[in-house]
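Blackboard transcription, Thursday session:
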Amino acid sequence: MMYTAAALAILITMGLALARALLGPTVYDRILSVNMFGTKTVLLIAVFAFLSGQTDILDIALVYALINFIGVVAVLKLIEQGNFFTSGEKDEREVESE
Amino acid sequence: MIDNLLNITLLAFLAITAFAIIRIRNLFAVIMLFGIYSLLSAGLFVVLDAADVAFTEAAVGAGISTVLMLATLALTKNHEEKPPAHRPWLPMIVVLVTGAALVYGTVDIPSFSDSEAPAHKHVAPRYIEEGFKETGVPNLVTAVLASYRGFDTLGEVTVIFTAGIGVLLLLGRRRGRKRGDEDNNET
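(Written on the board underneath:)
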């Protein structure tokens, strides 16, 4: 019963995050909503694992947490520097020249 | 009951996201929605008990393909040149007819988890009875993918590996040329 309530609450939160991703005027609204949606997916899988009694599904929740983190870092890096291939090198050089 | 509710809600979210992806013209938002779509379908796979597919979906759909699409977006523009002006009625009709035919086709399909379905009578009983004895893998889906269809999976991995090398070569070449230019400027 408790898990059912938790699953329902997570579904509602997912709906809210989805609404923000659809409406979100700025880039950061959407990034945050995707990040939050990923977290909710992790939680939903964890709750579902206990709800259905298959606790080995928890491993998948761990993988999701990792992927979500890496994905958001990649998106933010792109926003910050505009591309992926001129990574830290340029910054280091600037620091050295200064 | 809660299983049905989860399925229905996740599918409804999937449909909403898909429609939004079609309608929205901001490409960055579309990529973010693709990420959400992938997370949703991965969650749906978990609810449907397909742990392996969910793993793949999470790694490829939410992880790699989002990053690849963002990398592509960084090389192009954030908006489409202009929204499509014509109304493609003929393709719409073709899609609707095909969809109707496919839905009509599902009428003959045995109902979900019907134990008398042909798919469950062919090799499945052998996998279920002998699978653990023959492969020693507790998860049957993993046993089929990694052991019974090992060569098939090896072929798929080879294809993905080759595609990855191709992408790395394409991206890495640009980087090398850029470095060469900088070196020339410095000397």
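Lecturer's comment: Residues 27-52 of chain A form the longest helix (26 residues).
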